[in-house]
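User: Let's play a game. I give you a shape written as tokens, and you guess the letters that built it. Ready? Here's round one.
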């Protein structure tokens, strides 16, 4: 300290980034400085954890036993990977709400699931929506619009079969409700 006349025989680092540059203090002032100094000031908990993990191996790359050095596991700490089975942190709340929402939605009948996936549709679906999606896919995969590509032709055949299954189910379902 500028107004201190005691011998400055004790060093203290200037900052986290320049640990080999020092301030020189007397014993009383170095204790005061060290009590206020925080190496991790301004770092998030994830950054602190990553820094501590890197220090364990002296900032050298390391990997868990049984892993290849060519494909090391992610070396940085990810706060999202914290095991929280009691949901103390509340991170699973959104996942549980999404799960409840999906459970409340009606599931497609088993014979339709593959066909709906082929057409890129979600259940429940109306015949008009299915027809519109079928028209879009038929235009996109028609051999005439793809210079006679055989793969596009095969894809169109699969789309035709899928639409036929969905249309048959939806029209028979409509007849059952009307009757």
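Assistant: Ready! My guess for every position:
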């Amino acid at each position: 300290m500028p107004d201190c006349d005691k011998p400055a025989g004790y060093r203290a680092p200037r900052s986290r980034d320049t640990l080999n540059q020092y301030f020189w203090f007397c014993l009383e002032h170095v204790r005061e400085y060290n009590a206020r100094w925080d190496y991790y000031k301004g770092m998030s908990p994830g950054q602190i954890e990553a820094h501590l993990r890197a220090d364990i191996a002296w900032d050298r790359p390391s990997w868990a036993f049984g892993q290849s050095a060519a494909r090391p596991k992610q070396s940085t700490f990810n706060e999202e990977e914290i095991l929280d089975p009691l949901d103390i942190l509340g991170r699973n709340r959104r996942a549980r709400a999404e799960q409840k929402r999906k459970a409340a939605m009606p599931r497609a009948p088993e014979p339709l699931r593959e066909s709906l996936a082929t057409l890129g549709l979600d259940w429940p679906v109306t015949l008009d929506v299915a027809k519109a999606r079928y028209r879009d896919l038929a235009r996109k995969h028609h051999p005439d619009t793809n210079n006679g590509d055989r793969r596009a032709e095969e894809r169109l055949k699969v789309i035709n079969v899928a639409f036929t299954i969905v249309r048959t189910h939806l029209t028979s379902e409509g007849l059952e409700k009307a009757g």
